[in-house]
Design goal:
The protein is α+β, with helices and mostly antiparallel strands. The protein has helices at 7-26, 36-48, 110-131, 150-156, 209-223, 263-284, 303-316, 323-333, 338-347, 377-383, 403-407, 412-434, 436-452; strands at residues 52-55, 64-70, 74-80, 135-142, 165-172, 176-177, 184-193, 197-198, 232-239, 247-248, 251-260, 287-296, 386-392. It is globular and about 80 Å long.
Length: 474
């Protein structure tokens, strides 16, 4: 590093404990709002490291924060620990093999994400104490990023009201400041109710809810021609009404995911999809009810924060992988398609090479191919100045939400990448706390952008998170 930052050395003090936490969470994969053991592990580690711990943040049982320091600005470091359904996988091998049939797995690296964020918070805590610098750091253990939008609920309910700036990261195949792009997304359920009847003897007496769902699909497909180019609409049947074709189905439900690059475009598109559903109900003489499941905003850019993160990355350099890391990554690479590999290189606007791991830092804003999804980090970016870094933890080209990602979740490369991410995030917090002008610049930029495009929370004020009961209380 080309600076005198104490953060890397302070990270080293805690890295063994936090890589152990990452591995334990990998071994107890839990999906959205059911992360009871993972959350408890994070809370226990926060207490062991001397943080002031709050559980049940924003009324969510699996959300936890840990705060340290006094006075000064407050920097949030965001972590996650939810897994994905159906991605159970044996670690450290190069073939698909379920650890437990049908079980979830950490196919997005959130076992690393939360642990690295806490590791960064530990280093910042130690730095504040050692130097007597006024300032606070708060680790956020955020559940349900995978479709549950916990951060949106947390933002809406005030959990970030006193925060000055936020920092987060995500595991992947390349090390770079993340582009300020994500899709605003609403997941909404449409429940149609009709009237059952004998489909052969008395079909005229029936009103088919299943017909309504299918007509809604037709209507949405026609809508696709008349929406903004970056919008996306997907759907999945929740209830097709039954398995008997000789019954006119009296009920049917479908979930729609409605996305757009701009929050307000997405909200307008949601209203249009509702009208399509109402039209389908009218055509079939059924009724329809709308029920929000979750919603998130798009990413709100803060160039000042991203430049601070780029500075931290440039000081650190690339992740220091070794030959054993490269040997395993080469085995994983052999399981990937040429398209998987080419896609990751295209995003960073670089020609593909034989490199199996990214041990360098990608220049900021590489102007590569845009491949974006949705995340509840987006709502945090609208609330406070935020930056996100992507750090290499897996073979180049590894798709997120894949067995390959799960398999690499406890590898040497994964551990090195999460430690590197902690150093970068901790360094950003150090810069923001010790340089009031930089933090003020980030906050002013955020305020100016927000004045032009005010924030509208995509989640209704009375909508509750889709919580699940504790296993021992079910």
């Amino acid at each position: 590093m080309q600076n005198t930052s104490a953060i890397p050395g302070l990270v080293a003090r805690h890295q063994d404990d936090l890589t152990g936490l990452a591995d334990r969470v990998w071994g107890m994969p839990e999906t959205l709002y059911g992360e009871f053991r993972s959350s408890a592990e994070h809370a226990a580690m926060l207490r062991a490291k001397g943080f002031r711990v709050t559980e049940g943040v924003a009324g969510i049982p699996t959300a936890v924060t840990g705060e340290a320091g006094t006075g000064g600005p407050l920097i949030a470091i965001l972590g996650e620990y939810d897994a994905l359904p159906g991605l159970s996988q044996v670690a450290g091998i190069d073939r698909p093999e379920e650890l437990e049939a049908g079980a979830p797995g950490h196919g997005c690296g959130h076992n690393l994400l939360g642990s690295a964020a806490m590791l960064a918070a530990c280093a910042v805590k130690d730095w504040l104490e050692a130097t007597g610098t006024p300032g606070r750091v708060r680790y956020y253990g955020c559940p349900a990023e995978e479709g549950g939008a916990a951060k949106t609920f947390m933002v809406r309910d005030g959990a970030f009201d006193d925060v000055d700036a936020a920092v987060t990261w995500h595991p992947g195949g390349m090390t770079r400041v993340d582009d300020p792009l994500s899709l605003a997304n609403t997941r909404m359920d449409f429940h149609f109710s009709g009237r059952a009847a004998h489909a052969a003897a008395q079909p005229h007496l029936g009103r088919s809810a299943l017909d309504a769902v299918e007509l809604m699909s037709v209507g949405v497909n026609y809508l696709r021609e008349h929406m903004v180019q970056d919008a996306r609409i997907h759907y999945a049947y929740l209830d097709a009404g039954g398995k008997a074709p000789n019954v006119v189905q009296a009920r049917a439900s479908v979930r729609y995911s409605i996305r757009a690059l701009d929050l307000h475009e997405m909200l307008a598109l949601v209203e249009r999809v509702k009208k399509v559903a109402q039209g389908a109900a009218l055509m079939t003489e059924t009724s329809v009810e709308f029920q929000m499941f979750a919603a998130v905003s798009n990413h709100f850019e803060n160039l000042t924060m991203d430049k601070v993160m780029q500075q931290a990355l440039d000081e650190l350099g690339g992740v220091p992988f070794d030959d054993l890391d490269r040997a395993y990554a080469a085995k994983i690479r052999a399981t990937l398609s040429p398209s998987d590999i080419a896609a990751e290189w295209s995003v960073v606007n670089q020609a593909p090479s034989d490199a199996v791991l990214c041990d360098w830092v990608v220049p900021m804003r590489p102007n590569g191919k845009v491949l974006i999804g949705s995340t509840d980090v987006g709502d945090v970016t609208w609330k406070v100045p935020t930056t996100e870094v992507l750090v290499a933890t897996a073979a180049i080209g590894t798709p997120l939400h894949s067995w390959q990602m799960t398999a690499q979740g406890k590898s040497g490369a994964a551990h090195k990448g999460m430690i590197h991410a902690a150093k970068a995030m901790g360094r950003v917090a150090e810069i923001l706390i010790s340089d009031p002008a930089r933090l003020a610049e980030a906050k002013e930029e955020h305020a100016q952008r927000l004045a032009l495009t005010p924030y509208t929370c995509p989640m209704p004020p009375d909508h509750k998170p889709p919580l699940v009961p504790r296993p021992d209380a079910a």
